[in-house]
Task: inverse folding
């Protein structure tokens, strides 16, 4: 029960890694605000948490909508008055290559960069009430640590998330708020084939296998393995860890 009586908020918690993280936090004693642009999916996550014996509530949140961000944080304040853990997980692969329509560039940038920036900005007053127990976790990517020939836009976003995290770690350390990022390699979620299937006529299976060949452990991660890293960063087990971009990648960036 490493998060007993703490309040957590997870974005994009309706499926995949976000759902796994929300469930893990709840199993460790937290009350979890499960947010997702798909409210039905968020409610499904809450139902799973309820069946686990945990405590959670679902809220619709489009992280590109500043009014929705403000409304969700107001709900957290009214309901709990404090936030201990913010898990900024929401993100999309975006378009591949560099020949990208402006509307697609704007959409991906709004979700991948504007979203975590403003969710964090609105959460900071609540995190400052956590009496030195505040933790902000960002989902970045190995593509934010090393270049990707397939997705320069995604790499730009995730590299930006890493430096946003490091800057906030320095800014918020005096308030007892730690900031870290998880940098997953391939993870067995619905987003994985989407990532490799963005190019028209792409052989998704072939591209995925080529990427897996570069992972020393030879397989994708499971969402629960990412959730384990998130729990470490959320809990007192990492009480002196801040400003870290943690690869959870089967050895990909060790090559």
Result:
């Amino acid at each position: 029960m490493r998060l007993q009586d703490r309040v957590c908020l997870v974005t994009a918690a309706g499926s995949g890694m976000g759902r796994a993280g929300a469930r893990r936090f709840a199993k460790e004693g937290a009350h979890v605000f499960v947010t997702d642009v798909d409210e039905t999916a968020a409610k499904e996550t809450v139902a799973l948490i309820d069946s686990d014996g945990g405590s959670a509530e679902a809220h619709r949140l489009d992280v590109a909508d500043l009014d929705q961000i403000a409304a969700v944080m107001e709900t957290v304040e009214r309901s709990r008055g404090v936030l201990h853990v913010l898990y900024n997980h929401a993100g999309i692969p975006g378009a591949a290559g560099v020949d990208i329509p402006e509307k697609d560039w704007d959409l991906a940038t709004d979700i991948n960069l504007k979203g975590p920036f403003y969710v964090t900005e609105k959460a900071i007053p609540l995190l400052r009430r956590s009496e030195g127990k505040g933790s902000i976790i960002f989902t970045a990517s190995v593509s934010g640590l090393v270049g990707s020939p397939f997705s320069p836009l995604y790499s730009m976003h995730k590299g930006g998330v890493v430096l946003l995290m490091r800057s906030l770690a320095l800014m918020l350390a005096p308030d007892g708020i730690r900031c870290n990022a998880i940098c997953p390699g391939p993870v067995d979620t619905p987003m994985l084939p989407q990532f490799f299937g963005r190019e028209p006529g792409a052989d998704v299976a072939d591209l995925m296998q080529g990427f897996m060949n570069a992972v020393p452990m030879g397989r994708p991660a499971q969402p629960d393995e990412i959730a384990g890293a998130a729990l470490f960063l959320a809990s007192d087990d990492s009480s002196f860890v801040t400003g870290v971009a943690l690869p959870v990648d089967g050895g990909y960036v060790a090559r």
In short: The CA atoms of residues 20 and 224 lie 6 Å apart.
